[in-house]
Amino acid sequence: MAWGEFKNTAAERRLFQRRALVMLIVVSMAMIGLLARMYQLQIVEHDIYTTLSDKNRVQVQSVPPPRGLVYDRNNFLLAENRPVFSLTLVPERVDGMEATLTRLAGILDIAEEDIERFQRRLREPRRPFQELPLSYDLSEEEIARMAVHRHEFPGVEIKAELVRYYPHSELTAHALGFVGRINREELQRIDAVNYAGTNYIGKSGIERFYEQVLHGAVGYQHVETNARGRILRVLERVNPVPGEDLQLHLDLRLQRKAHELLSGRRGAIIAIEPDTGGILALASVPGFDANKFVTGISVNEYRDLSEDIDKPLFNRALRGQYPPGSTIKPMMAVAALDSGATTRERRIWDPGYFQLREGGRRFRNWYRSGDGWVDLKTSMARSNDVYFYEVGVEMGVDVMSQYLAQFGFGEDATLDVSGALSGLLPTADWKRGARNEPWYPGDSVNMSIGQGFFLSTPLQLATATALIANRGEWVEPRLLKDIRGDRSVEEFLPEETHEPLILKNLDDWEYVVDTMVEVMHGPRGTARAAAQGASYQIAGKTGTAQVFSLAEDEEYDEEQVRERLRDHALFVGFAPADDPKIVVAIIVENGGGGSSTAAPVARALFDAWLEDFPAAEQDAMFTQTASEGNR
């Protein structure tokens, strides 16, 4: 028997024991390491990993505040908020953005413009996990289609939000302005914290001027989400502070009346309450549907509006700069009397034209045969140009500009009307700088009747006329009447900066008002037909502004002139003359004569404000009282 056939049992046992001990030590060390790591994770670093976990599970979302509402002076709603459903994406949760957009476009009717706009916003700086809107105002059918495929699109949601809506859009578009989606430039200047979650901002008009008041303060909520980013529940919420509701001086009834009177024409109407400076009507016709701009107007729709020959996007009331024509004569009369260039008794011979020197150019009166001897009152009633030619040359450009500036020409004299232009009040220095020419006496001749370089807006004409109605007391035009909350109007209205226009002889105010009454009610007044049968006295002045110039001896034939080259028809005035309640300025583009076109429009506005509306209110009160009595 060989020695190798015998086993060394003791040696094998010792080897096994050594191996088992080694394995036990290794396993024990591994268990100790595992337990130590578990202790570190579960006990020592518990707070750290709980926070990291919550960041994946819990999100902080901004809650945009509801935008403040806007009412007219009679509490008719002019701007409200309505719920719409939008398709939004959280880029951090979307798996394959390009593929997702392509698939979504196959399910929903998403315009190429919306996709391009979304991609631009995707490239702009933004907060992490911020929802980006792709398509707005989804229909019920689109919402249903998206609900069927919802599980296929992580990071894509249908979100309900409040969006601005203008129930009287075309009537109020130019007065209120509109809101629109925040663009890149606006992102850089707004408070990123307070506008978190807000997609809209005021773009023009009241919406822009009072943006801070209307916007409110953002709120927040902590929400629990699943792995796909869908909200499971709201853990905590801090409610947003809604924007303040505004009440304007604007009267929706008068605004509608103004649009009706200008229907089918191009023009503007401004109506002001002289006691407060409140703007009762601000109409620019034709108008446009401001609701199209809220969620984003299509390229084709915008092209149609911007290329429309009637320019519906152009705010004629605030930005239309026209020669004021003879509507400037009441202000010129104040300047001439106060500067001593003329007196009430002074008479000037009108042969039908005016010459600076014998044999020189003839500046014609509109009435080619001439009015003979005329004083200031007759020249105002007849709208005689020769009288104002002579006193205008005697005053000179410096005196005329000095007085006209005190009426608010050459500046934006409003308190809260966003976008108003300043017109052009020419001076000798302006002409030298702009045209490198001296001021000629012939320039003063043109300026004295509101022609030449002189340009003004309808709002400026209404402001200047209100100064006459108030007998020199300045009340700067404003739209805001009240804020429905704890904040005062004075907190947001800019301070008035204009001093009263005090004349050397205060009776000159009444005299100039009398000359304007003569225009409407005098036997030779140019607008006496428009005032016929009125139960109150109107103080007014018609005007006709040339769109193009005639040669010295050329006759004007309206029928042979293309419609868009015809004269503009203008009117300024107030009523009642002795206790003014309303001031109006009207321009009808290419409307012809102010007395035949603009003055009847003014009469209809005066009748509505002074008679029709009060009568309707009385009838309504009587009906309500009778109804309560029957109960």
Mind telling me the CATH superfamily name of the largest domain?
DD-peptidase/beta-lactamase superfamily
Q: What is the level-2 CATH architecture name of the largest domain? A: 3-Layer(aba) Sandwich
* Count of distinct strands: 20
Total number of distinct structural domains: 2
What's the number of helices?
22
Poorly predicted runs of 5 or more residues: none
Family: Belongs to the transpeptidase family. MrdA subfamily.
GO molecular function: penicillin binding; peptidoglycan L,D-transpeptidase activity; serine-type D-Ala-D-Ala carboxypeptidase activity
Keywords: Carboxypeptidase, Cell inner membrane, Cell membrane, Cell shape, Cell wall biogenesis/degradation, Hydrolase, Membrane, Peptidoglycan synthesis, Protease, Transmembrane, Transmembrane helix
Pfam family, one: Transpeptidase
